[in-house]
Amino acid sequence: MNAETRGPVPPGTGWPGDPATAATPVARSAEDVARLAAAAPHLAEVDARASVCRACPRLVAWREEVARVRRAAYATEPYWGRPVPSFGPPDARVLLVGLAPAAHGGNRTGRIFTGDRSGDWLFAALHRAGLASLPTSTSAGDGQRMVATRITAAARCAPPVNKPTPAERDACRPWLVRELELTRPTLRAVVVLGGFAWQALWPALKAACYPLPARRPAFGHGARVELPAGPLLLGCYHPSQQNTFTGRVTAEMLEDVLSAAAGYAGLRPGDTAR
């Protein structure tokens, strides 16, 4: 990609891992998101349609402005500048749900949790737990491969100050709902990174017709909920810089939750399947 061309990368122009083409339908409203997500026949198409979404004007303006201005440290690099698709195989047994892409992380690299400090922590722990082939994730073309694991987010666009509005969260929900529907045959464990994602996940599970407990359990690190005829939900503090710098979450805490998810899903370090 030409680093001098500022702004978001058009679909189908050769960015590694870009799931969309010039013909991928574009959602321009919350109603469009609901319609296009529900009609997506498989996860590759969910990723493609989500990656060109323009339903939330504030988020579109922000992510594209970040891609034009860029951080000084990345001034010579092109920026993805679009909604960030999920990453991992369609038959995943473990699903990680985060908040949203980082402005100079996923919004720059085009891969969720890639190119920032949170991702450094997360992928190192995923690798130790046997859920990622490499301990680092630096770019969309670095050879990283998930092991029966998929990473997604409650909001697909980088939001200002890392805070999507309730309306933006709700508009984005159908992408997650369809993802939960399509992964259901293989899904065994869901790791929820942070309180925002925990709150966003429950209505998505309900819309995807998962049986839920009568009362929504509170979020906490190590929170554990076995859904009736569904996956195990595990709460985990988000590996944000604020949490890792203060010791609220440690590498061991992160690895413990991911290893619990892997074990519940029947995966062990060293597995190479999928």
UniProtKB/TrEMBL annotation:
It comes from the Bacteria. GO terms for molecular function: 4 iron, 4 sulfur cluster binding; DNA-deoxyinosine glycosylase activity; metal ion binding; uracil DNA N-glycosylase activity. Keywords: 4Fe-4S, DNA damage, DNA repair, Hydrolase, Iron, Iron-sulfur, Metal-binding. Residues 1-23 are annotated as: Disordered. The keyword Hydrolase applies. GO terms for biological process: base-excision repair. The keyword Hydrolase applies. Belongs to the uracil-DNA glycosylase (UDG) superfamily. Type 5 (UDGb) family. PANTHER family: TYPE-5 URACIL-DNA GLYCOSYLASE. This is Type-5 uracil-DNA glycosylase. It comes from Pseudofrankia asymbiotica.
